[in-house]
Every structure is written in structure tokens, then in C-alpha cells.
Specification:
Elements: E1 2-4, E2 9-10, H1 11-19, H2 25-32, H3 42-61
Family: Belongs to the Bfd family.
Protein name: Bacterioferritin-associated ferredoxin
InterPro entries: BFD-associated_ferredoxin, BFD-like_2Fe2S-bd_dom, BFD-like_2Fe2S-bd_dom_sf
């Protein structure tokens, strides 16, 4: 779905920017140009960023790590 009509940014592009390393709304905005024109989409863009970052954090927390360490 289009989040920003002024610059043609979709929710998929916002998510992709996060998957490629953006860690904040500011970084996503700089990378995609979302909310850089009229700004009416800023609330929705922030929501997509927040939800995506939360999903990534939850997924990373679910990754099992070995509790056993050995010396090399």
C-alpha cells in the first residue's frame, strides 16, 4: 500500500529499508524520502517503522543461542 503519495513510497519499501539496515524513522526517511514533501503520511510511516522494528526484535529474541561455550 502507498504510505506517501507525494514521493510514491510504499509500506514494502519502508520495510525493505529496515531489512537493509535502517534502524530508525529518521534513517528510513533519509533513505526512502517518505514524509519529505507535505508530511501528511508521517504518522503512518512511523507506525510501519515501529511495527517492523518490533517484529524484527521479536524474531531475533526467538533465535535460540547455545548456552554452552568452549575455549578455542
Amino acid at each position: 500500500m502507498y504510505v506517501c503519495l507525494c514521493t510514491g513510497v510504499t509500506d514494502g519499501q519502508i520495510r525493505e529499508a529496515i531489512y537493509e539496515g535502517c534502524c530508525s524513522y529518521k534513517e528510513v526517511r533519509e533513505t526512502t524520502g517518505v514524509a519529505s514533501q507535505c508530511g501528511k503520511c508521517a504518522c503512518l510511516a512511523k507506525q510501519v517503522v515501529r511495527e517492523t522494528l518490533t517484529q524484527l526484535q521479536t524474531a531475533q529474541a526467538a533465535i535460540p543461542y547455545s548456552a554452552e561455550f568452549t575455549h578455542a
